[in-house]
Amino acid sequence: MPAEMRLRRRVLFSETDAAGIVHFANYFRYFEDAEHALWRETGMTIHPDDSDIGWPRVSASCDYHRPLRFEQEFEVTVRIAEIARRTIRYEGSITCDGERVATATWKIACVMNLPDGTMKSAEIPATVAERLEPAHRPSAIEHRPSNTE
Amino acid sequence: MPAEMRLRRRVLFSETDAAGIVHFANYFRYFEDAEHALWRETGMTIHPDDSDIGWPRVSASCDYHRPLRFEQEFEVTVRIAEIARRTIRYEGSITCDGERVATATWKIACVMNLPDGTMKSAEIPATVAERLEPAHRPSAIEHRPSNTE
Amino acid sequence: MPAEMRLRRRVLFSETDAAGIVHFANYFRYFEDAEHALWRETGMTIHPDDSDIGWPRVSASCDYHRPLRFEQEFEVTVRIAEIARRTIRYEGSITCDGERVATATWKIACVMNLPDGTMKSAEIPATVAERLEPAHRPSAIEHRPSNTE
Amino acid sequence: MPAEMRLRRRVLFSETDAAGIVHFANYFRYFEDAEHALWRETGMTIHPDDSDIGWPRVSASCDYHRPLRFEQEFEVTVRIAEIARRTIRYEGSITCDGERVATATWKIACVMNLPDGTMKSAEIPATVAERLEPAHRPSAIEHRPSNTE
What we know:
The structure is a homotetramer.
Chain A: E1 5-10, H1 26-41, E2 53-54, E3 57-64, E4 73-83, E5 87-96, E6 99-109, E7 111-113, E8 119-121, H2 126-132
Antiparallel strand pairs in A: 1-4, 2-7, 3-6, 4-5, 5-6, 7-8
């Protein structure tokens, strides 16, 4: 698989808001879409029907540089910045016509879904880490923890 | 007005995802809802019909501590951490049954919507800054810029 | 419980679209919210954690009479028009400042979620039908099947 | 242009709900996406930046035959069932692996957006009707008005 995942998308009308631009929360859905495409590219799905393992978000942050409007085509790029024992951190960017629209980073944790409905932190299965490794590239930008950690 | 805005909400079914919990992008909508309620509390609306001024997001980040599930009641708290010349930074938290669910920070910029459809950075009108001032409290947590700035 | 459920709500910014009004698909979320509140009013939840029974939509239709805009307050009313052996049909309306905004009807079916992930039509448990009965009122409008049935 | 518009799509995680299937309101977004693609195919956009004309929904209805799950690929087909003087009615269907998932019909109205923020019913411009005409096919199914009209 390639070292990063690139998706092309077009803005849906239902993703815009009354300011005439894509609602800021929808960028997180765009990035998640590309993240899941990256998993598919490795032959895996992040949400198998028959698994007790889940991958909730631990943190997510996005910087918005330019707005996107209805029907604009844009490109989402995602790569894995870090595979730790229990978490994976991604970095992504959105561009439109060669211009930077948004940059983001987010972290998911491996959890075990218990029968009582709660979740328990778990180690990432070795088979999963191995398959994701090709998309793992040291971060191009220096990572500083966000202010709410 | 009070120094912070508190809202009580209940999780809608349409806000959950196949993992059985609130989809992480929806937390940003919860926080935005409380932010807009804070503006209403000052007698203003963040999106008047007859204004050329807009308030797009510059950045948004959230840390997720516990999941929320269908029909759970939770509390969103928002306050203004910083009013700069052209931007406003908020801090917010979500709790459920007294437990910390999520903490977030986000920044909006004042812009002028130009006739050609583009936006231009603008200074926050003095009347707006004055009205928001009572909800402005120095941050309780040290602010470090996110890694994508 | 009352013969119908009434909820008051305010339009969120994230529910609007680039036309400056609430996106039409969100009306279905408003009606579903009131439907679930009606179930809660009977002491039940439509989605218990420990049940194999589910309630997917069979059909949904809405007529739009007037737009809703950001921050407008509106009222959603829902009642049960029909409780059949395997399905329940609702009718709902949305009003704003006493004016009719939308009217809708939708039908849910009782299903058994099988271990292989599929669903099988099931009879509505008697205890559920009994509890919902007080909210059941013969339809005020003549029901004709939609054209795609 | 072809007499109907076909789109292929894959279910996003953010489109599912706690029942493990696509939330029913999202089908209306899928159909709208295909409708807008049909307009683009004619060389038009349904929401130009510099136009006072808008196309709000008058009604929308959907019948759900089978659920869709995360990552399933499906096909959306849309065609114009009727072009009247002031409204356009569409019919659409969603299939997955050759099986019928959903069928829908919806109607949009041509309106003039007035300076005071209200809308006024308007006749469909002749140039628009001409361009859409190739996608107009007499309905394959008998149309009966929905019960809330």
